[in-house]
């Protein structure tokens, strides 16, 4: 079945005069749901940090591998995808429900353009459930309350936080958001996370100037973090092998995958 949670009409207003992350990201991965300002800012960011399109594609590929691993190898049947962004091919529900048609997926975002596309996003299987809720990661309690309308929080949930905590600029606040969300799901649940880094070990030197330009010309503001800071988000959880690595290398088909300055990891709640 499909469920739609439509927010008040006032939240439908789109600001097409300022570049927005969801639309720029869509441009970087070859989508069409973006405006001229998004393409201009996105192309300029790419001129500062030429691997940014590789990061976007690697992050999307990581999502596919992580969902496949959790659904097929760990038996996960519930996914909470926070900061889902604009729908493209191979969305979380498509991957999970192809493996297990009874999978239940809740998408969460606060971008009005994502809401515009929500109905197309909500074409799931009859055996499972696919829902979209409008909520902000900065308000995890409201997010969890709305998601509970579709998910059974007495059973394990895979919490997907791909490229979302980088928009929570205060690191302590970001850690508290993760703690709050993971405290609401039972043992056997998973945290799936990607996050940009400035670490030179994975080629992150150009992330800082690129993000400085972004923060002056686009919304929402963004930050990169070190491997140590990102690892701290997994406090109290057990990392799945190979731990925190460049997201392009996590369960990659071969060791030849190009390293990108975006860490990825999956961890289980004991």
Please describe the structure with a list of short key phrases separated by commas or semicolons.
270 residues; alpha/beta; 11 strands; disordered N terminus
* Total E-strand runs: 11
Summed over residues and divided by their number, the pLDDT gives a mean of 90
Run of helices and strands:
EEHHHEHEHHEHEHEHEHEEE
Low-confidence stretches: 1-12
Describe the structure.
With 270 residues, the protein is α/β, with parallel strands linked by helices. Helices cover 36% and strands 17% of the residues. The chain has ten helices and eleven strands. It has helices at 21-28, 36-48, 52-73, 92-99, 112-116, 118-121, 140-147, 171-183, 207-217, 227-231, and strands spanning 2-4, 19-20, 78-82, 104-109, 129-134, 158-162, 190-196, 218-219, 238-239, 245-246, 262-268. Strands 1, 3, 4, 5, 6, 7, 9, 10 and 11 form a nine-stranded mixed beta sheet that branches. It has a two-stranded parallel ribbon with strand order 2-8. α2 (36-48) packs antiparallel against α9 (207-217) and α3 (52-73) packs parallel to α4. The longest helix is centred in the first third of the chain and has 22 residues, at 52-73. The radius of gyration is 17 Å and the shape is globular. 48% of the residues are buried. The model is unreliable at 1-12 (pLDDT under 50).
